[in-house]
Design goal:
six-stranded parallel beta sheet; 313 residues; alpha/beta
Amino acid sequence: MKKVFIDGKDGTTGLKIYKRFENRNDIELLIIDSDKRKDAGERARLINESDITFLCLPDAASVEAVSLVKNKNTKIIDTSTAHRTLNGWAYGFAELSVNHRRNIENSSRIAVPGCYASGFNAIVYPLVKNGFISSNYDIVCYALSGYTGAGKKGIAQYEDENRDSELNSPRLYALTQEHKHLKEMKAVSGLAKFPVFSPVICDYPQGMVVAVGLYTERMSKKYTAYDIYKMFCEHYGNSDIVKVRRPGYTQGMIGCNNFAGRDDMEIEINGNNDRILITSRFDNLGKGASGAAIQCMNIAMGIDEKTGLNIGD
């Protein structure tokens, strides 16, 4: 039985991780007293007593928590943005490549990807890795997410019965092109420059779609949507967690909240001979956060990676 501590259990991601352990008998949860949540000494004791510690904290607090680790056998799984592009940290998206999975299996430091970055890298990494686009391709990406991705304060705003009427509509943000996920989107995908990224927060709780458009004439050769579909199928193999859908799989519209409550992801390729649209659809709190964190823990433990996850058809 593994001893697990969640540093930051009362945050949105921390609570989701905590609830996933309710029916697991292979985990012993170490619980900090509520009045000691910010006591560095008590946190250090529990971190070093654990086999695995999840960090569900702001960036600075996550960096501080890592500095408290003295037990060389303690594995850290960090859900913040603090360590996602640092050497020595495994990037927690196992499906991207054999090396990504191997690093999660063998590392004592694992960084859980950001939600938008998960959807973006799931699309762009295979395109660059397999030579369908160059690293200098000018990528424009837009994405829509449920409001739970905004954290506790954002959730409180949206769920306030006296909220501002503007919250009734989708809202475009990160207007200065400085979104905190951009760093890992560029570094992990293999791009030479940052994409233009336009995220939109919407008036529903969970679920997201990330979309990337391509001009076929600007790819390494004029690939069809079906060519790209075949490449993605080969890249992701028979993954139960990242599913690849053929062109025309969705007739009409792709909903953003269809994967709410699930821990898998769906990639779909559509378009025509001139323009291709590739989308990834998943739950921002599932494969985009706590589900990915649990999957990383399962891989690090050497057990079935789907243990405790909700995987659809």
